[in-house]
Specification:
The chain has 2 domains: about 160 residues, no CATH class; about 70 residues, no CATH class. The protein is about 55% helix and about 10% strand. The chain has 12 helices and 6 strands. The strands form 3 sheets. Strands 1-2 form a two-stranded antiparallel sheet. Strands 3-6 form a two-stranded antiparallel ribbon. A hairpin with a 6-residue loop joins β4 and β5. α9 packs across α12 and α10 packs across α12. The longest helix has about 35 residues. It is elongated, with a radius of gyration of 25 Å.
Length: about 250
């Protein structure tokens, strides 16, 4: 059931060492790519403005001084721009903030300065292979995209190294819809692990959000527990959840 729930949406429950459970909705690569595009546009605009201002100032300071200052501006804009914003109060770059995303640790805690620096400095590796050459080529983000699609939490190489994830900033509360009431409670035939108990009770809590066919489709994945499929399987699942929540 836990694997099934992971395929329904990107809401993931993470149990900490203290026994506290946090729920994070992980952002996928499409929205993250859009946020990256916004940030790159902001960075390029900033570099263009800085180049124009320094170009005018270069008349008085000289071309060598202007070139050195422009190199510093490029370095801090390209490499430290995301670190400054992600390690700050927002926990996100302007691009991520516009799309409602935030960078956090895998435990849900705010990202630290060191973690943000590590994940962003590894963007060079995530950007490989580069189209047109390694040094001045255009990053394709091929490695980063492949890693995102290969990991359960959509983590690129920088995220894996830093222990971070990108999540939706505000988790929308699920609407409260009455679930179909169980006819009776039923004790499960075998002892359930904690994650299985959470999956069964979550089925009952969310059942009112789904159609009858959708409930049956999800309940069929637990036919080994319920011993039935279709609507009988749904009824059996609801009865077991009722026992777990109210009778044990």
């Amino acid at each position: 059931m836990e694997e099934v729930a992971g395929r329904i949406d990107t809401l993931q429950a993470i149990e900490l060492a203290e026994g506290v459970e946090v729920r994070l909705r992980i952002a996928g690569p499409l929205l993250r790519g859009m946020a990256l595009g916004i940030d790159v546009a902001i960075q390029l605009a900033g570099l263009m403005v800085a180049g124009f201002v320094l170009g005018l100032a270069g008349i008085a300071m000289g071309s060598l001084v202007t070139a050195g200052m422009m190199s510093l501006v490029w370095f801090f804009t390209w490499w430290w721009y995301p670190v400054f914003f992600e390690a700050g109060r927002w926990g996100a770059t302007p691009g991520k903030k516009m799309l409602g995303l935030r960078v956090v640790q895998t435990s849900g805690a705010p990202v630290t300065f060191g973690q943000s620096m590590l994940r962003n400095f590894l963007r060079f590796a995530d950007g490989l292979p580069c189209f047109g050459g390694l040094i001045v080529g255009i990053p394709t983000m091929g490695f980063g995209l492949a890693t995102c699609l290969a990991t359960r939490r959509f983590q690129r190489l920088g995220d894996l190294a830093a222990g971070t994830v990108v999540i939706y900033d505000k988790l929308q509360p699920e609407p409260s819809v009455p679930a179909p009431p169980p006819m009776a409670s039923a004790r499960p035939a075998a002892a359930l692990r904690p994650e299985e108990v959470r999956a069964v009770t979550a089925f009952r809590e969310r059942a009112g959000l789904w159609s009858e066919d959708r409930r049956a489709e999800i309940a069929d994945h637990a036919h080994e527990l319920t011993g039935a499929t279709g609507q009988p399987g749904v009824s059996r699942m609801m009865a077991i959840a009722h026992w777990l929540q109210e009778k044990r």
